[in-house]
Amino acid sequence: MTKAKGTGRGRRGGERRTSRRQTPAVDPRPLVVDIRSIGAGGDGVADDDGRPVYVPYTVPGDRVEVRPVASVAGGVRADILSFEAEGPHRVPPPCRHFGTCGGCALQHLDDTVYVDWKRGRVVEALARQGLGEVPVGAVVRSPASARRRATFAARRIGRDVVLGFNAAKSHLILDLAECPVLRPALVALLPSLRDLLRTMLEAMAAADVVVTETAAGVDLVFVMGREAGLDDRERLAGWAAENDVARVSWQGAEDVVEPIAARRPVTLSWGGADVAIPAGAFLQATAEGEAAIVERVLAATSEAARVADLYAGCGTIAFPLAASAKTVHAVEGEAGLVAAIERSAGAFSGRVSAEQRDLVARPLTVPELRRFDAVVFDPPRAGAAPQARMLAEAGVPTVVGVSCNPATFARDARTLVDSGYRLREVTPIDQFLWSPHVELVGVFSRDGS
User: Which residues, in sequence order, are bridge partners of residue 37?
Assistant: First the structure.
């Protein structure tokens, strides 16, 4: 059994937690507004006497009649009542669910403007920290139908099961029929998953299903909120065989993931290491995005003999680093992921080591960091503020930051730059097609190095 990491996205049963705080009342009288830009969340932004109005599913140049519905970010969020004119950058969305599904925000935006907007999110985040002069490269993109990992929400309603993603700005679940973002093998499982869950969920009961496509087949974790009974185990084992999936696991009331049917080893290959992936382990969303990240990290650290890989996961970056570095030390907070690295490190004759450590509570210290010629860090969305402060003092010659949050990356970059580092370049990477999310790789060096 392994502790779960990110299998339920902080919620159980496909519902989002809602705040009890009262949203300030807004004047619901209709407005006619002109959309001038796209905001950080993917909504169109208009101006109403100096007050921003955020309107989902609009593009610059749209003129729309809207009804304000909520106060947000110093302005109001509004719903569309009608279009008076459409902007020149509007295109037909490729998915029938667009506008009701909460997964995509920007399928209606033409490709050139979409890519410029994604890059702009990185540029703006850096500029807010006084780093507007940093070179920002072209966006490296993952194609459609490339996302290999997703979390489906499910609920039993009467005799039926709804299964898919949460609807836009709602706890309701959209019953998914297609998805141009996901790999086809994941979408193809939906009808069979509905039939299975119909036998496992009681009336109004809910669950999440984490699905990941690997070379061995699809790997699933059922996040059920209760312990698995004998009937559950038998059904899952039979279903796994019928659908030829690689592995099925169960997460109950505790954050423990238990394999139920492991039909084939679930492994991924990185840098010559075949790594056995724990059920529910974090992976990059697309293989293409992962390859882009690794390529840029390797280019930046090619001359480093001793490298530390912080927030290392299962070794996605650590093992490729070992192709050129004499030693690689991987640091990760999750015990199951550290064990996965250690199981595969033997093939590298002691050149790859791993350590379990909470880098927020106990970042690598200055003396520890000074053992390395390069440090790579790839933290969660909250960033790596404690570790960035230690890196700033240690003065490691090369630092590479990988981030899924431009704002916290820019904050940590400011810490490094203020201590004498130069942020040489930043590459945006789009793994989450048509969403507001953008990842990046940034390369730092000390002045004179």
Answer: 45
